[in-house]
Design brief:
The protein is α+β, with helices and mostly antiparallel strands and about 100 residues long. The protein has two helices and six strands, in the order E-H-E-E-E-E-E-H.
Amino acid sequence: MTEFSADQVVWTSRVSDHFGPVVELRDDAGAVSYYSVEKEFDVAGSSYAVLRQEDGSSEEPEIFKIVTTADGTLELITIDDDEEWENVSELYDELTFPE
């Protein structure tokens, strides 16, 4: 996978438009966590959402990949590919904290 650059970013609001400003996510054990939507963007043909836990238990936001299922439902999934996660994370840092 190639690195992403800030000039490739298209800001979006699909998750906020679909779920609202706060998203409810369940982990594999069924525990519910609430996240506020900070940013959403498309880059290189993929979509991502930057979310922050509502309870303040983590200072760092979490980045999820946005996918659309065959029936048109939006889902937020964990980025399992280490290289993709690193590229998206670095891009978000670049966009958030420009030099």
